[in-house]
Amino acid sequence: MTSPVLNGLIKKRAEIAGRIQAIHEEAARLVADLDHLDCAIRLFDPEIDFQDLPVKALPPPNAAFRGEFQRSLLEMLRGTQRWQTTDELAVKVMVQRRMNDSDRELRVLTRKRVGHALKRLQRKGVVANRKAGKGALLAWKITRPDAQLEGGWRNGSECTPH
Q1: Least confident among 58-67, 89-98, 146-155
Q2: 71-96 pLDDT tens trace
Q3: Which candidate, 154, 142, 158, 143, places its Cα nearest to that of 72?
Q4: Helical (H) or strand (E) element with 34
Q5: Which of 5-9, 23-27, 129-133 is least confident?
Q6: DSSP character for 152?
Q7: What is the DSSP string of 99-150?
Q8: In degrees, to the nearest 5, what angle opens at C-alpha 65 toward C-alphas 62 and 70?
Q9: pLDDT band for position 48 (50/70/90)?
Q10: What is the DSSP string of 54-105?
């Protein structure tokens, strides 16, 4: 008979091993895609040196396009008529973005970002807040369910994705 601690460690190990396997499989697919592109490029320029070509940096994994974060919070608030705390909304954001909601530091950072986004929405008159219990915790509710936020891509252009 195994202990609950051992069972938990084995489950966590299996989860991490599965993530590593998935990353390796994705890396293999990406290398194959890159090889195909290199072959196609060589058709047009057989002398090209791929070492001199730039590498595009990826955005951080939790980055959002302009207005996307606020829009997702509005959708969460539209989904219920009850008041929701900043912490509850932060956990929903973390789950939605596949972030580790048991990481205390990440949860605090996400809660701060959610709070700032909600304050901006409050200044626009889209949400309202009230004190939720003891301390500084606030609860939020949407006041204008029909509100539509404007916003384009990260660079501020007004283009919208298709």
Answers
A1: 146-155
A2: 888 888 887 888 999 999 999 988 88
A3: 142
A4: helix 4-44
A5: 129-133
A6: -
A7: --TT-HHHHHHHHHHHHHHHHHHHHTTSEEEEE-SSTT-EEEEES-TT----
A8: 90
A9: very high
A10: --PPPPPTT---TTHHHHHHHHHHHT-SS-EEHHHHHHHHHHHTT--TT-HH
Q: Which amino acid is at 11?
A: K
Residue type at 15 in one-letter notation: E
Q: Please list, in sequence order, all residues whose beta carbon lies within 8 angstroms of the beta carbon of residue 97, skipping any fewer than 6 positions away.
A: 62
Token code pair at residue 3: 């202990």
Answering whether pTM is above 0.70, one says no
- Give me the amino acid identity at 83: W
Cβ atoms of 86 and 130 within 8 Å: the answer is no
